[in-house]
Amino acid sequence: MINSLFKPLLSETDKKWKPILKAFEAAIGKDGVVRRKEELLTYECDGLTSYRQRPAVVVLPRTTEEVAAVVKICHDYQIPWVARGAGTGLSGGALPVEDCVLIVTARMKQILEIDLENQRVIVQPGVINNWVTQAVSGAGFYYAPDPSSQIICSIGGNVAENSGGVHCLKYGVTSNHVLGLKLVIPDGSIVDVGGMIPEMPGYDLTGLFVGSEGTLGIATEITLKILKTPEAICVLLADFTSVEAAGQAVSDIISSGIIPAGLEIMDNFCINAVEDVVATNCYPRDAEAILLIELDGLQVEVAANKERVAKICRKNGARDITSANDPETRLKLWKGRKAAFAAAGNISPNYFVQDGVIPRTQLAKVLQQINELGEQYGYRIANVFHAGDGNLHPLILYDNSIVGAWEEVEKLGGEILKLCVECGGSLSGEHGIGSDKNCYMPYMFNETDLETMQWVRQIFNPDNLANPGKVFPTPRTCGEAANAKLEQFKEIDLY
Amino acid sequence: MINSLFKPLLSETDKKWKPILKAFEAAIGKDGVVRRKEELLTYECDGLTSYRQRPAVVVLPRTTEEVAAVVKICHDYQIPWVARGAGTGLSGGALPVEDCVLIVTARMKQILEIDLENQRVIVQPGVINNWVTQAVSGAGFYYAPDPSSQIICSIGGNVAENSGGVHCLKYGVTSNHVLGLKLVIPDGSIVDVGGMIPEMPGYDLTGLFVGSEGTLGIATEITLKILKTPEAICVLLADFTSVEAAGQAVSDIISSGIIPAGLEIMDNFCINAVEDVVATNCYPRDAEAILLIELDGLQVEVAANKERVAKICRKNGARDITSANDPETRLKLWKGRKAAFAAAGNISPNYFVQDGVIPRTQLAKVLQQINELGEQYGYRIANVFHAGDGNLHPLILYDNSIVGAWEEVEKLGGEILKLCVECGGSLSGEHGIGSDKNCYMPYMFNETDLETMQWVRQIFNPDNLANPGKVFPTPRTCGEAANAKLEQFKEIDLY
Asked: Quick check: A185 contacting B, CB < 8 Å?
């Protein structure tokens, strides 16, 4: 009964919601509609925990048709809605907005089709990233994009944020692995974009939707490309006595024409944090930086590239180079990297992961400047990131219980982004813009460029019901800290 | 003087154009405005010579600002315009429409920036595809997409049509190699999309524009990714006594996890046509099909893959396998493939190149059906195409001087596309939709899907001035033949 969800005396708000809830229940069943305050708590934030907002109601559809029905109801009542996958996103893309419907894909976890012959898999959006590889690995295939959160994050969220991961250096981010999408757009229509083969004729709406962060619609069926598992994989661990030397080794490896499957860097602070927590006993605590380099391909190719990479590392002053070919030892070498965020959580009450991109060639310089910024603001910063594609992830450690700390960290994070953009990089490599970075968009785009993107949003989402306030800067969503930073960019008007 | 371009007595049409021509001349200079009938002849068609339409005027801007000025004038006077690169397109994408302005990029041939460190090059749209590789090959780099027409086609046209080529099997089509674009959109505004690094935040408008066939605007500066020249390249030529066996070898090579840099097939008819013209003396005239397989990478990798590919070919009944490592012999093996279209022109007064995609696994079956269709219609069809990605290019040989021949060929081409779509493929692999295939779009997309694409067109191109009548089906652009074919698709309404 609807009434059991409410206090006996209906408030004005409850009156407004009554017919809407009834419509949701009719469309997807009572068990798919969550309205109790204590149950809504879980949904107040995603992985960016510093922002919180309780949704008015959570709905849990199971099929494309149910999603379409829910979105149609939102459209009819002009209620804003936000889509949410596993809620692991780091830019607040799935952060609810006030009085919104949160459409959660947790019950859309079916792998709908596996077509090994044509190397594709069709999944519902709630399917966990790692499940795709698990479903096809027995037959010698895998799904390449592998965010750190891959054992808990969902494909739908990956599509929304165009997620990356360690293996995206060689194989590209999510957009390179999505062939087609079944979408529910904000008026409740069901649209198919792309298809079963790459490079379909007509406009590339698949590419447009991947990374649109829930502002153009919600993907309800996703056709993914899967790749053949390589014949051989080798992981090298090289340790350096300076970050500059490690950065130079990264540049030299890529310049030599080798594209490793993964190429990650960790600084001394991060190495020690990780060893404290998971004790890999592989990462030398006195190293200023380590590189983790994964090579894949044919046996002979991996063996040859291993020699070349080792030589480049040694030329750049690497002290030790360990390598692992068998899965178990490889996993051991990766273990610390995979635990880096958890380790930051262990040594600090809170941490904030920034996500920016710089040209690879400027790694050492920018890392130095990031450290200087950290000292200036009085916060420790651990660095662990995808060095191969210049995708930085500085982890700023702080204590949220200290008044004003978060605001300072936000400002420091903004300074880091400014650095990235100024040296020819980007505001985001793989975590998306979401609620966290929309106010920084004018760092990268002028008014006309942003307006052009807004046109696209407006045609799909004319009433601004789908994930309002995300991605694009509006005065409302820009914090004071960010505004202050923007004043330094006098030449660009805040859009 | 404007007047010198006209007959003494101005017609109504001339009166309409007088102020427009004046405005063009003021914007880009008199030498950039072509209006004489005999000079306009060149621009009546692109590579799809069966359709012709003389433009009202041709303009030849040199810079982004000049393009913007021209487009703004068209916008102010509400004159339709069509962009044209080198005019080598095969789907009529650059076919003028009645009473239009043709914006030709022939004077926009500057390579604006070469940044080897970051592996990118910025070019104007009139730059010839091959020039990019020429400009960077000395430093050990190349530009991967290589349409057959690469020595004459322009990068702007490649961007518009999302062109492919032999090397796109391994490295992807044009959209995978464009980082950013400076665009003039149909209201005359200049917009930057994408940038200098991949995966910029916000909507992927770069991906949206690449392949939009001039309907959303015109690219005036294009930032391209360049790749490191591989250490080793090897070309194998394997000959088979049946097309089925060659097709199975293609499937087996890809299934084995090897991705050749190129994997091309030629049938017996094509082999003989080519040998008649260029006499490579490499292609056995009695072979039912040959495969040309290019492998690239490290020396050891290429050597290992060469063994594996040869083994797969032999398993599938290949008679002879020739291979070439040195550039000169490699070129010799490729020579016939590159000359295939010219050879078709030699043995037939006219030929029509169809472009469709099928799942690789159905190669042999579909080729058989194409031959049957050819017999049924009474036309010879030569097959030479990108086998690795299932991108067919049947060459239908005909004589345009025979009344009704072109109409029959068009119908036969439509039947071939129908075959492609029915077996899970696509209307176009790399030549685009243009004027030629827009009426077939409902084969692949339902009304809602097409409408969604049209929304996108309408926001960028609301007055339908940029390349009107292309890509999307309208009753006006669908020939009777195509309409008759469409009637067989009762379940899909013609949009």
From this structure: yes
B228: closest CA of chain A, how far (Å): 6
* Contact call for residues B293 and B253 (beta carbons, < 8 A): yes
Q: Under a CB-based contact definition with an 8 Å cutoff, are residues B176 and A402 in contact?
A: no
Find the radius of gyration of the CA atoms of chain B. Answer: 23
The reply to whether residue B444 touches residue A201, judged by beta carbons under 8 angstroms, is yes
User: Residues for chain B: how many in total?
Assistant: 495
**A243-255 helix and A363-377 helix, angle to the nearest 10 degrees:** 150
Position with higher pLDDT, B468 vs A5: B468
**Mean pLDDT across the stretch A409-435?**
94
Residue B491 lies in a domain: no
Q: Is residue A396 part of a domain?
A: yes
Is position B336 within any domain?
yes
Place of tokens 């459209």: A75
- pLDDT, position A10: 61
ipTM score for this prediction: 0.90
**CATH code assigned at A194:** 3.30.465.10
Domain final residue pick, A298, A318, A342:
A342
3-state secondary structure of A248: helix
Residues of chain B contacting A386 with CB distance shorter than 8 Å: none
Both B224 and B257 in one domain: the answer is no
Domain extent at residue A296: 232-342
pLDDT for residue B204: 96
Chain A residues within an 8 Å CB radius of B203: 208, 211-212, 216, 453, 456-457
Residue B20 C-alpha, separation from nearest chain A C-alpha, in angstroms: 27
* C-alpha torsion sign, points B129, B131, B137, B141: negative
Closest CA to A170 of B161, B198, B68, B95: B198
Q: What is the DSSP string of A121-159?
A: EEE-TTSBHHHHHHHHGGGTEE-----TTTTT-BHHHHH
Pick from B117, B111, B162: nearest CA to B133: B111
Quick one: B386 and B481 in the same domain?
yes
Same domain as A302, residue A221: no
Of B136, B67, B51, the C-alpha closest to B105 is B67
* Domain C-terminal end among A290, A315, A342: A342
B406-464 per-position pLDDT tens digit: 999 999 999 999 999 999 999 999 999 999 999 999 999 999 999 999 999 999 999 99
Name residues whose C-beta falls within 8 Å of residue A124's C-beta, 6 or more positions apart in sequence. Answer: A105, A108, A109, A110, A111, A112, A156, A220, A221, A222
Domain match, A375 and A467 both = yes
* Two structure tokens written together for B67: 């393009």
In terms of domains, do A352 and A476 share one? yes
CB-CB contact of B309 with B260 (8 Å) = yes
Do A28 and A11 belong to one domain? yes
**B96 and B43 Cβ atoms separated by less than 8 Å:** yes
B26 and B71 in a single domain? The answer is yes
